[in-house]
Amino acid sequence: MNGREEVEEGEGEVTMQVVLSIKKATHSSSRPRASAFLLLNNYSYTPLISPSPPHQQFVFFVHSATGTLQDTTPLTNNTSSARQAVVYFSEWFKREKSHLLDQVFKILHDDHHSAALSQLGLRLNESFVLQVLSYGKAKNDVLSCLKFFDWAGHQHGFRHTLATFHAIFNILSRAKLMPIMLKFLDNELRLKFLSHKFTFYSTLVMGYALAGKPMFALHLFGKMRFVGLDLDDYTYHILLNALVEESCYEAVDVVAKQIALRGCQGNATHPIILKSFCKRKLFDQAEAYLRKALLKDGGEKGHDFGFGYSLAILVDAFCKNGQLDKASQLIDELRKLGSVPMKPAYDMWLRNLVQAGKIDGALEFLLSMKSSENYVPEIFRYNTLLCRLLREDRLGDAIDLLVEMIENQIPPDMVTMNAALCFFCKAGMVDVALELYNSKSEFGLSPNGMAYNYLINALLGNESTGEAYRVLKSSMDQEYFPGRKTFTILADALCREGKLDKMKELVLFSLQRNFIPNDSIYDRLISALCRARRVEDGYLIHGELTRFNKVAKSTTYAELISGLGKIHKGDVAARLLLEMQEKGHEATRPLFRTVIRYLCATENAETKFCKLLDMQLSLHEPNSHIYKCFIDGAGHAKKPDLGRHVYEMMYGSGIKVDLSSDILMLKCYLKSGRISDALNFFDILHHRRRTIGRKVYNTMIVGLCRVNKVDLALDYFRKMQNEGYRPSIQCFEVLVNLLCSIKRYDLAIDLTHELEKVGRPITPFIGNTFLLYSLRSKELYDAWVQYREAHDKLPCNLSILGQLISTFSGRVAMHQEIGDLEMEIQRCFPVNVYTFNILLSTISKRDIDYACEMFSRMQFRGYEPNQGTYGILINGLSENKRTAEAERLRDEMFRKGLIQVNVSNN
């Protein structure tokens, strides 16, 4: 045995192993999308006979795969096995490929095709032109067919015939390009460039008949008869069929009589007449006509395929009318006669079984007829059944059907190749599908929409986002746009993986081809770009969005406005705010606050502020909401004079200045640190309103605390109590926090005691504050001891808080278990995420395993960890050199959006 034979023998065995694995994977797996190659390693194949050429082995395998093959050692090279599967299917795809026709159509795709076609030295005749047009029709390449037809018609020594005209008209009709067809016919009718009147009129009659205008064709036929011309048999039947299709039954009878008078009635006429009966639902007359025609010919002409097609038409009519049983009986009856070619009827019966959803019946019929009559359906019947099997995820039956087609040496067409590609995607064999796709130019595969969608989704499921992006971009280059769902899934994947450049390119690429993605894709992309601090790119996409009259979500506007402000483009942010309102979105106070804050950071801030206010007042009816938004915005921008200007404008406009407006103006002074102005304004309010309410006092106390004016805040706190108002919980919280920050722990503890006296519980904020400062300083514990000694009896919660301060300050050893310590805190105040963060910070320094246990406990109890929680645990794990666990937590943070860049993957 020479080297080449050894290689072929080896390839044959591997091919059988691959296909066996595919069959086992698809037949045995209960999950259709499970990867077949995951199962591939569990199966192998030991030949029961001596090695034979690859295709024979393949066929042998199909007949033997029901259980007679033995499982031996598993395959070890998945890549090699996948490659063998690719080679095998590629060879099948290449069968019956005409390199000359491929070259012709490649030339036709260029603009300067005439000279290149002439250089090929083609021998033009009717047969070759029909072959080229048939090839183009199979490829659905209408434009190239038209180019070739036009080129051939201008070549010396060749003139188009009725057959070639019929072929091009059929292509145009099938592609529903009736306007082009009618324009051509009208030109022919006007120019009359055909020299022979018979050819001229016959072509026009044929063309108008195929273009769906049979009555005009009939009119031209009348003109022919008037000048002594007649149609040939071929065109007569085309005209008759067109009249039937358009339900012109009176004209059908007239033309049928003409055909009979000329002696042309026969097997070509029978299918058309039967179709006429069936369209009118005259099924009994149709059946009687067929039986009479068969009886008249005495079986002598029964073997002509005209009767086979007649039977097929009647079978199809019965099935469409819900009479499948009658269609089956008719097939059985005429099959027993043996005088009618049954293949057309079998093809039609098979198609209707599939369309009726009787897939098992179709498979049984196919197997039965193949074994008894060696029946092999046409390629398009195989395709119909194959696509239905794939749609229903019957992958085992689908691979059986593909194998049968290979065994029967049926050259695949475009639909078959696309279906095979879809099969490998659905079977989880993405590597095979991708390599077949990458090799598509070798066998002229032009993926259809279903194949593109399956391949892209399979690649995304395989986490091959880059490859999915490449395939989608290639599909768009071919002027195919996948379904919006597929496009959205890919865009989401790119956004999730942070591949914003590709996502941006994909969106702009689609817009250049007038493919408008869903609005949600724009919003996700703009949001992702803003979060990645690429606001200019986000603004560019937004510009494209408005160019196509798309309206972004209000949240997208908000993110863009915030991002533009951060890069010192407050003017643009202000324009976007107005645009947002013009598009029907409501601008919230926080959004106004953001815009005004950034606008006030630009040059000529006062002028721009007033201009924006004027535009808002002209856009809306003047109302207190607009004025309040601008007072609030001025406060956050630390421009209290602008805020006071708007406040005074409210008085001048006649709008009632209510309590909330007063509070906003007071905050405006406090946020700017203008304490004296705030005190003066407070006095003005006191004089104007006679009494200062609880809300104004709370605002004053909280505002003074936030600018670290603790003594003033305490003064107003006492004044508020003296006037009979109860301070809010927020007042207690901010005062306690500020007092702890300046180490006035005794007052902080006293305020907490006071909170308990009025029957209010210790809040999580106050409790967490004491725990945090216990960790930071020992002085809090000392202050607590002094306070406890100065008071005979303390409330229970305050005593527990003192014990916690002792524990967290380190004065008392932490002997409690995690659960016990958590329960102790729970007795004092409700725990929250920040409580757990303090516990984790304490425990992680001592025992990282203990900390991990607490992390799991908090998640189990429904507390969602924040960025601080993860940071504490990651630092603890990193210090203990547990890098893998730390990276896993970083990945989790990235998935939850707590960080924008996954550091562990960089």
TrEMBL record:
PROSITE patterns with a match to the protein in the record: PPR
Gene3D superfamilies reported in the protein's UniProt record: Tetratricopeptide repeat domain (1.25.40.10)
Organism, scientific name: Erythroxylum novogranatense
Renumbered ranges of PPR repeats: 307-341, 378-412, 413-447, 553-587, 693-727, 866-900
Repeat among keywords: yes
GO MF term list: mRNA binding
The UniProt record lists the keyword Repeat: yes
One Pfam assignment: PPR
Keywords, sorted A to Z: Repeat
Domain of life: Eukaryota
Sequence similarity: Belongs to the PPR family. P subfamily.
Organism ancestry: Eukaryota, Viridiplantae, Streptophyta, Embryophyta, Tracheophyta
Designated name of the protein: Pentatricopeptide repeat-containing protein
